[in-house]
Amino acid sequence: MSEQNYLKKLLDGVEVEWTELGEIAKIKHGKDWKNLDSGAVPVYGSGGVMGYVNKYSYDKPTVLIPRKGTITNIFYVDIPFWNVDTIYYTDIATSKIIPKYFYHFMKSLNLMALDTGSGRPSLTQAILNKLLIPIPSPDNPEKSLAIQSEIVRILDTFTAL
């Protein structure tokens, strides 16, 4: 069973509000890393870790979403990192959504269906910001986050198998 099917099954029977990604996370661009010194901070591009530098661009749990290239490579990162311009990072409203829940949802999507590139696969902020994310128990934030945590626990276990 796919991750998307598991997610749907886990949300079955729970009140859900479909919320636009732009309302729960801000999508941020990456930056050039060529002038940074070597270090221990991973540098992410759409293909994954490209190297290591001495500075970070963000240091909170996030979901990295490729902008160009391998657009299906979604990453969950919970350590300081640097990202280049081929991959977005997300500044997540953690009072509304758990970053790892957001990650599992993004992994469940067919991102190639959102491709806007003519030759090289591409995702735009405009398209991503309109994606609808299922938020369980929207009127009770504490319950919503508890449900999301349980879903993450189950999906992490499923993924580890």
UniProtKB/TrEMBL annotation:
Pfam family, one: Methylase_S
SUPFAM superfamilies: DNA methylase specificity domain
UniProt key word Hydrolase: yes
Keyword terms of this UniProt record: DNA-binding, Endonuclease, Hydrolase, Nuclease, Restriction system
Family annotation (Gene3D superfamilies): DNA methylase specificity domains (3.90.220.20)
GO molecular function: DNA binding; endonuclease activity
Gene Ontology biological-process annotations: DNA restriction-modification system
Domain of life where this protein originates: Bacteria
Domain Type I restriction modification DNA specificity: 15-160
Family membership noted in the UniProt record: Belongs to the type-I restriction system S methylase family.
Protein name: Restriction endonuclease subunit S
Lineage, uppermost ranks: Bacteria, Pseudomonadati, Pseudomonadota, Gammaproteobacteria, Enterobacterales
